[in-house]
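User: Can you help me understand a structure? I only have the sequence.
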Amino acid sequence: MTKISPARKAAFQILMAVERGQSHSDDLLRGKAVNALSAPDRNLATALVLGVLRWQIQLDHECQALLTRPNAKLDPEIRIALRMGAFQLLHMDRIPARAAIDESVELAQQAGHRFASGMVNAVLRKMARYKQTLDSLSPPEEARNPEEGGVFNPRVMPTATTEALASEGFFSEDLEAHAACEAHPIWMVERWISFYGLDVARDLCRHGQSQPVLTLRLAGPAAEAELDAAGIGLEPGELLTAARTVVSGNPTASLLEGKLSDQLRLQDEGSQLVAELAGYSGESGINPVQKQRKILDACAAPGGKTLILAERNPQARIVACESSAARLEQLRKRLACLGERVECRQADATALKEESVFDLALDDVPCSGTGTLGRNPEIRHRLRPEDLTRQAERQRALLAAALRAVRPGGRVVYSTCSMEPEENEQVVAAVLAANPNARLVSLEERIGQLLDGNILTSTGAERLRGSLTGEGFLRLLPGTFHTDGFFICMIERTS
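Assistant: Let's start by predicting it. Here is the structure, written out as tokens:
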């Protein structure tokens, strides 16, 4: 009997839970079972889970082509075993083929599929031979990617579809083949081409297949020196003076031990930018001073943006809303450092009783999350086109409630981590049409204020100005920026 490594066993269990819709991979990868693994096993389990989820559509496509009956319906355990084996063979150069195959076969057997395990063995051995043949062709160095332990480029199998893609370029006439090659649902690729054009759609797909950069926010002067002493290499952020990109080492352990938790936070730079655009209370050319007296964070969990709002508005009273009891408890713990300055309230922000009370509202609403596919790869498997309509209905209600909550002259910053117009421009247009006492405010002026306040870098400000739409919205496109994807706009209540 082949012994299954703890990492592969944990990855298999997590992928099965995700497949059954029982939980999300990010929650499970932070769970007790994974934390109990050794550091190397924890890293391998994480790479397997995220890699399989990122490449699942391509992996299924390639495995299906090698089945004796390509249209055969496979049990979930067999699908997961095949995906794990195929991912290791095709995308992880440092994993021996024998280990990938034998342990995938054993996973199928231990899941109660002894007969089907022979099929897993046959498919993966055939795939390994194809991979060996492909490797012997000595692909150019640029075809390889160091992420996920040495990810090979998506054109890994000598099938008719991948050969066509290799000869015709990224977008072939066979869009279905392209979508399989880049491991994105065809409906998602089609709409991105329609909205953004071929080049941007290509960048969105490629960004969704890459490991996101690890970005920190420095909230104290001692943090950078301590990180340097710990051997953690940093580079300046792409946009913000307080952001740093990790280029070597792993600060996560230090954060978990609480050594630097009051000095820095792990937070995507785009997420930081949303809060900076909302919370800046200074004027051009001077240091920030208190302006907003009462601030609403309508959808506050997990609290990273709330902390920035408090940092930029040290005298403000902040109401941070969260509808989930579990997430509210986590929010309270994270914001405990703010003391009585913040009220963490379990509330659906659409049902707030306050009207004309707040000077500022941040409305970072729940969304499809298509701007975060690199970080949350399983979204592409759960999301359906019809979900966007449902999301947009709630987003309109949240934005309308935030506008009611601010006083005349107060402003609402509306943001999503979605690339879909139904959740962005169309939500804003619908709410403005129903609220004649509100107007759009271009973010161009705020970008200038953040530059003058030394919050934005000069290069960052220039790049953000280039990403403003004609209406003054800001769109961060993954692949264009090294951030998650975001849509951000500002609305002022006029009366």
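Now, to help you interpret it: Residues 268-493 form a domain with the Rossmann fold fold (CATH 3.40.50.150). Residues 211 and 303 are 23 Å apart (CA to CA). Let me know which part you'd like to focus on.
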